[in-house]
Amino acid sequence: MNSTTQMQWETGEEIEGQVTGRSRSNVGGGQFDGLGGRERAQAVTRRLTLAVDAWWQQGEMPSIGLVRDALLALEAGRPVDEAGRTLLLRGALFYGKGMRTALHHLNDPERAASVMRDMLLHPTQPLAPAQIVALAHQDDDSVGWMAPLLQLLREEMAQPLEPRRTLAQASFEFLREGRMGDSKPASWVALAAQTAPAQSKPRRGRRGFLSGAARRGLASLFGVLALALVVLALAFTWLDIEQSLDPTGDMVSIPSGIYRISATALADTDRLVELQSFSIDRTEVTNRAYRLCYEADGCTWPTRTSSVLRPDYFLNPALDSFPMINVTHAQAALFCRWAGKRLPLEEEWEVAASSALTLQRAYRYPWGDTYESVRANGASTAVGDTLAVGTFSPGGDSPSQVADMAGNVAEWTATPINLPGAPDPGYVAKGGSFQDTAVGLATNSRMAVDGEEGFPWLGFRCAITEPADDLAMGRNYQPFATNSTNFTNDLAKFVGVRAIRGENPASGLVVTTGN
């Protein structure tokens, strides 16, 4: 690796000098000098060993503090084994700090390439290819690890697994170009070819020991295998085409019936609603799906292209599977129309998020009545931004197997609501986002949002109305259990208020409500 690597930890703050041409006693502020420094380094090494075990057993990243301390110990000349140095590079790439120093101390280029591949294809926090290009521009020996990295990405591109294949393709194209800012483009493929060992020419001599018939048999076998590979490639291509025809992915069907959900006006109360059968997207609409709509002239450009932490959020192919954000209510509705769908009603959204059909009850959170931070991307997760859709699936799914109904991004609905002091009504948003606490992530939580605004914490999903089933709405269904001691009278009261029924123009559904 580059012998003049410098350790940059905080942006604009250089806490280490050059690796060579300096006194080791000055590294790390002298905290690893002398007998006391040796003991501190041994303590860091023990912590790193435990972190390696945690990584292999649970996939748990080392803490950012441990990555910093271990890199300082390495800079001070304290020994760390290969497994520890590998984990340090993984952690440095994950946190985006100390990357150059970690790369300098990992002397195995192929191992470094493998770690970079893993982080570029990370399912919830993929590394931006631009960071790899930046490292390559700063490392004189970058061809040593860039060549195997490109080969690893090629292999991933040949696999049908998503989103790894899409991430691999986007990363490969970016790295092959080698462009970073205004610097000159450099073809890493060409550099790799220049440094590849030349293959020796085969020596002339006797023909192989196989007979002509055996060689013909092998040729036929290889021909059959080649044909099989072509068929598989065509099948995967057709699968890609089929998936692109439905950019919003799978939908979940909800049967028509009478459901008990939260009351819109009074806290800790509920109401009965009668809904026609409908289907709703299993996940939030993604960046990729919205870009397809925009490229087909079906959608308009979002209000901004950045998220809270990612300046290139909408434009980065590595974030294709992340939820679409920064769209107004009209833009969200326009996408749904392009996809042959519509925005869901608030009542539909809440039923899909909370109702356990087989148990005939509704939950406070999609997974149950108790909040669990490991099941949703909320404020307690401390991510501070969106994650790929379905990251917490199936553990965070609703009883109907709908993902991300709590956290990640709040979602537009088709239900209008008055905004205090505003001439025009806003719309109800449901589900809470990555910045909300447990209260905001509850299925009965709702917020009023100006329909003309787009926010980095607000996305959407779509729904469709299913054909009416054979049973008339409101008959022959077992409504959910209620808090009432006399359910028959409660249902009679519900049926008695059918006079307030109204047609919802956004969906064409009949929604009947009653206390």
3D architecture notes:
With 515 residues, the protein is an alpha+beta fold. It has helices at 34-58, 64-75, 82-95, 99-105, 109-120, 129-138, 142-157, 164-177, 188-195, 212-245, 287-295, 329-338, 346-354, 438-441, 487-496, and strands spanning 6-10, 13-18, 251-254, 257-262, 270-275, 278-281, 355-356, 361-362, 410-417, 426-430, 446-449, 458-459, 463-465, 502-503, 510-514. A 4-stranded antiparallel β-sheet has the order 4-5-15-14, sandwiched between helices. Strand 9 (410-417) and strand 10 (426-430) form a beta hairpin. Helix 5 crosses helix 7, helix 7 packs antiparallel against helix 8 and helix 7 packs across helix 9 (188-195). It is elongated. Mean pLDDT is 75; it is low at 1-29, 179-189, 191-210, 233-246 and 470-515.
